[in-house]
């Protein structure tokens, strides 16, 4: 692994973001299966919409067993307003079938007894679940000290010079997620993740970032030059 060029920057950035955003948790959930379903509902959907569709899903199917027993077309109905409802419903249907086959019931609570590596490996074995989603479940619902790298975390970390892309199209490959997680001290991972999401949504946006409003501009080597 490559060592971080400016190790003190991580602590400074984490403290500044924590002071600014107060570790807002983005409405994520403590039950790991709920969190996984919540993430599926959020795919390619705005925050207000996916929060509403998840509530609708839970109102229609009060327990995980109710969802597990429902055909995909029934699951699609309460989440239709969030878009891609048929695809999301099929993904939920397949996931629940695999989980029930493994644990005998629709639950991810057995992950609580697994170590980080085994829990992550199981989540990654589920159809359609990649490293970012697996680590979101681990972090939000199982209190594991991992660092999910979503589009906001990736963009901000690159702009700060903490990591470089290894792919030609600059997207974050699984090995890049591992590289960035390795560089961030475990005790700072949760705070940095949630606060980078807030920053990426409000200020450090993909195009025309509002650098004059940024609480971490003092540690950004790209201030004053075009952002990418």
Structure in words:
It is built from eleven helices and no strands. It has two domains: 7-24 and 148-219, Orthogonal Bundle (Endonuclease Iii, domain 2); 32-142, Orthogonal Bundle (Endonuclease III, domain 1). By secondary structure, it is mostly helical.
How would you concisely characterize the structure shown here?
With 228 residues, this protein is mainly alpha-helical. It has helices spanning 7-21, 32-42, 47-60, 64-68, 72-76, 85-103, 116-125, 131-142, 151-160, 174-183, 189-202.
Write the layout of secondary structure elements.
Blueprint: H1 7-21, H2 32-42, H3 47-60, H4 64-68, H5 72-76, H6 85-103, H7 116-125, H8 131-142, H9 151-160, H10 174-183, H11 189-202
Helix pairs in contact: 1-11, 2-3, 2-8, 7-8, 9-11
């Amino acid at each position: 692994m490559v060592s971080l060029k400016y190790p003190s920057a991580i602590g400074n950035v984490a403290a500044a973001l924590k002071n600014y955003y107060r570790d807002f948790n983005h409405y994520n959930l403590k039950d790991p299966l709920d969190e996984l379903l919540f993430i599926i509902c959020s795919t390619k959907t705005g925050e207000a919409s996916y929060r509403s569709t998840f509530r609708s899903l839970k109102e229609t199917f009060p327990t995980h067993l109710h969802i597990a027993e429902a055909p995909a077309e029934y699951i699609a109905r309460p989440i239709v307003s969030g878009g891609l409802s048929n695809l999301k419903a099929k993904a939920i249907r397949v996931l629940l079938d695999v989980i029930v086959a493994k644990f005998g019931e629709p639950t991810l609570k057995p992950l609580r007894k697994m170590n980080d590596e085994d829990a992550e490996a199981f989540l990654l074995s589920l159809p359609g679940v990649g490293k970012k989603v697996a680590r979101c479940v681990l972090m939000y619902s199982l209190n594991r000290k991992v660092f999910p790298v979503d589009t906001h975390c990736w963009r901000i970390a690159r702009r700060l010079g903490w990591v470089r892309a290894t792919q030609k199209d600059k997207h974050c490959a699984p090995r890049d997620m591992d590289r960035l997680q390795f560089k961030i001290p475990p005790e700072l991972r949760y705070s940095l993740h949630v606060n980078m999401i807030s920053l990426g949504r409000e200020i450090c946006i993909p195009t025309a970032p509002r650098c004059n409003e940024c609480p971490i501009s003092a540690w950004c080597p790209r201030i004053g030059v075009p952002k990418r």
